[in-house]
């Protein structure tokens, strides 16, 4: 089962979408998700295609959030769905065998999601977060540890994760972590990404 280390989610980046995509390719980021809830479809297609032109032929897989139709139009590598989006079975009618990741917010949702054989599951928010307009209740590291114990797919820990608490997440067993604000609200993206990857790899190797 492949590890992603830091799973990068592009959402209103201070540095700019293309600059971050270029850095992700340079540093070998495995997963780069485009998640811009307030962009028009036209702008999303344009941006998604630009990002794909940057990641094409690299080890960085472009993930499109929520939208099976846009994932196809942008030739994305992965589609990511939330609990309120199309069910995987319905999305498959649009994207065929394109890999699909699925967000989960409880142990029960994680168990149910794994029955659908997604590429991976997101699990969180681990800690309180304001990254969403209506955030789900935090699940905590003990629940994360439980999900990691039974998941046969990569589990991406997400939600309220910062340098000051990432050690707890990795010590719970996480090998795939998404840290949004710390990476998006800076112009020093590459240094911060290296820092996070070192944290994840070091703790998992000790």
Query: What is the terminal-to-terminal distance?
Result: 20 Å
Number of domains: 1
Radius of gyration: 16 Å
> What do the pLDDT scores average to?
95
Main sheet summary: 9 strands, parallel
The CATH superfamily is identified as Aldolase class I
Any guess at the CATH architecture?
A: Alpha-Beta Barrel
The protein's oligomeric status is single chain
Strand content: 15-25%
- The residue fraction in helices comes out at 40-55%
Low-confidence stretches: none
Number of helices, counting only DSSP H or I runs of 4 residues or more: 9
* CATH level 1 name: Alpha Beta
Give a count of the beta strands, DSSP E runs of length 2 or more. 9
The backbone outline, from C-alpha atoms, is globular
* Estimated structural class: alpha/beta
Features:
single chain, 206 residues, alpha/beta, TIM Barrel, 9-stranded parallel β-sheet, 9 helices, 17% strand
Describe the 3D structure.
The chain has 206 residues and is α/β, with parallel strands linked by helices. It has a single domain (5-204), classed as Aldolase class I (TIM Barrel, Alpha-Beta Barrel), CATH 3.20.20. 41% of the residues lie in helices and 17% in strands. Strands 1-9-8-7-6-5-4-3-2 form a 9-stranded parallel beta sheet. Helix 7 (166-171) links the parallel strand 8 and strand 9. The chain is globular and about 40 Å long. The two termini are 20 Å apart. The model has no long low-confidence stretch (mean pLDDT 95).
Please specify the SSE layout and strand pairing.
Layout: E1 5-6, E2 8-10, H1 17-27, E3 31-34, H2 41-55, E4 61-65, H3 68-73, E5 78-81, H4 88-95, E6 100-104, H5 107-114, E7 120-123, H6 140-150, E8 155-158, H7 166-171, E9 176-178, H8 181-184, H9 189-204
Parallel strand pairs: 1-9, 2-3, 3-4, 4-5, 5-6, 6-7, 7-8, 8-9
